[in-house]
Amino acid sequence: MEERLQKIIAASGMMSRRAAEELIAAGKVSVNGAVAALGDKADAARDRITVNGKALAPPEEKVYIMLNKPKGYVTTLSDEKGRRTVAELVKDAGLRLYPVGRLDMYSEGLLIMTNDGEFAEKLMHPRGGVEKSYRTSVTGTLSPAVLEELSKPMVIDGYRTHGAKVETEKLSRDGGVLFITISEGRNRQVRKMCEQAGLKVTRLQRVSEGGVRLGDLKPGTWRPLTRAEIKQLEHTV
User: Fold this and answer.
1) Catalytic annotation, residues
2) pLDDT in tens, 199-209
3) pTM for this structure?
4) 159 - beta bridge partners?
């Protein structure tokens, strides 16, 4: 079956569709020895496709998993500083899987990993509208005014965010536990929102993404996403 080249390349797990489009435009992709152009199609089962002179491998089986990332791990496949990476936690999955988005080293919770570059790119786009919820423990004054400030758009790093959904689980004299839901993927966004509202985050755990919930998955372990969960995530983008 013929498909656009960028889709075939992304499906192989080599790179995202956008990166493939850039290489095609630069004349770095060939089909059966002829340099390809944007808009060209091919049949992955029949045609010989090369990217930067390297033959495209047959498409891998698509794998989608959920990891409960513990604190102390960086969301990358390798780290020049020698820190522990999420790749170590999913090495028994049998394939090279890439994290969809990031959780900083001190955050924990739901992290989706996959070898489907196109799927990952759609979920990671900051403007994609995929809702992510975080159970957020904070210290500071949780007055009605502060909660209202958290829920309104903010300017963070020069970007105006959308409003957030903020629910309280627990309130105490010097802080509490909030559920904060955002629809963007800006760097350390929830931490920066809380800081701007005069709060200090003491624990940050992502508990859901695109309607898919972490549930009772133990820290440091992973499980495959169900077909229903995959469809749910696809529906959100």
Assistant:
1) 104
2) 999 999 999 99
3) 0.78
4) 156
